[in-house]
């Protein structure tokens, strides 16, 4: 199978347990799924259902306590960052001592791009999100919505093959949230990247052709395409 036909990430009977003994909490139960290239997936479910844990596992930020996760189209876990896999968290997670442009420059710089190229890519990403006038603002000078859009720009500038977003509009008003979702979808389309967005917003979920739903750590499907998903 050629690289462009391989799924971006595959989970086989993956589980994640926190703690041990009677106090143990199983956040993810035996999930098997695959995310193909060009996938557009809305991951829904109530708070505490395991959405964030599953995204962290898909991103390679956490390790399963059972089962396996592989990234066939990307390589091993060490090849995931910076660049191939990007995640936008619920909060902006910006470096407080760096201005907006410097924050967004980090992914290409860490990936080995030169300073001039990194600045150009960062400025372009910020302009797409309507933040061109804030290039030299510090994070403490931003509103919550502005800071979250900067975090989205930072994820986009690395040209990821797998783009994950955990409630990316949770701190934004409707207009700013729509701009963020537009940027995520448009950039994923441009890059040919797979996109998984965790959301409580039914309008956002309806924009994506595949619906996954977490319930008590189990992954259910309301898929409108052929992405394989299930819970062991």
What can you see in these coordinates?
The chain is an alpha/beta fold and 232 residues long. It has a single domain, classed as P-loop containing nucleotide triphosphate hydrolases (Rossmann fold), CATH 3.40.50.300. It is built from six helices and ten strands, in the order βββαββαααβαβαβββ. It has helices spanning 51-59, 100-110, 115-128, 144-156, 174-191, 202-207; strands at residues 9-18, 25-35, 40-44, 66-70, 85-88, 162-166, 194-198, 210-215, 218-221, 229-231. The strands form two sheets. A six-stranded mixed β-sheet has the order 5-6-7-3-8-9, with helices on both faces. Strands 4-1-2-10 form a four-stranded antiparallel β-sheet. Strand 1 and strand 2 form a beta hairpin. Helix 2 packs across helix 3 (115-128). The mean pLDDT is 87.
When the domains are counted, the total is 1
Number of helices in the DSSP assignment? 6
Helix content: 25-40%
In CATH's first tier, which class applies? Alpha Beta
CATH names the topology as Rossmann fold
The total of beta strands comes to 10
Give the CATH architecture.
3-Layer(aba) Sandwich
Q: Flag low-confidence runs.
A: none
| Radius of gyration computed on alpha carbons | 17 Å
Q: Biggest sheet: strands side by side, in what order?
A: 5-6-7-3-8-9
What is the approximate shape?
Answer: globular
SSE order = EEEHEEHHHEHEHEEE
Query: What integer is the average pLDDT?
Result: 87
**Multimerization status:** single chain
Identify the CATH homologous superfamily: P-loop containing nucleotide triphosphate hydrolases
Class from secondary-structure proportions = alpha/beta
């Amino acid at each position: 199978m050629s690289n462009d036909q391989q799924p971006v990430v595959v989970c086989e009977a993956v589980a994640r347990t926190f703690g041990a003994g009677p106090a143990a909490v199983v956040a993810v139960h035996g999930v098997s799924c695959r995310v193909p290239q060009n996938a557009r997936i809305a991951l829904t479910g109530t708070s505490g259902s395991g959405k964030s844990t599953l995204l962290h596992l898909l991103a390679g930020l956490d390790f399963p306590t059972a089962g396996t996760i592989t990234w066939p189209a990307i390589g091993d876990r060490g090849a995931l960052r910076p660049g191939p896999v990007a995640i936008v968290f619920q909060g902006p997670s910006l470096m407080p001592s760096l201005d907006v442009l410097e924050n967004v420059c980090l992914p290409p710089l860490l990936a080995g791009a030169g300073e001039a190229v990194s600045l150009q890519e960062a400025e372009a990403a910020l302009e797409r999100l309507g933040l061109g006038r804030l290039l030299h603002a510090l994070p403490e000078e931003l509103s919550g919505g502005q800071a979250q859009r900067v975090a989205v720009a930072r994820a986009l500038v690395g040209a990821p093959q797998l783009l994950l977003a955990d409630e990316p509009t949770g701190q934004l008003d409707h207009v700013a949230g729509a701009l963020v979702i537009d940027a995520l979808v448009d950039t994923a389309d441009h890059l040919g990247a797979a996109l998984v967005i965790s959301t409580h917003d039914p309008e956002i979920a309806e924009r994506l052709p595949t619906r996954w739903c977490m319930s008590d750590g189990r992954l259910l499907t309301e898929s409108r395409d052929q992405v394989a998903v299930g819970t062991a």
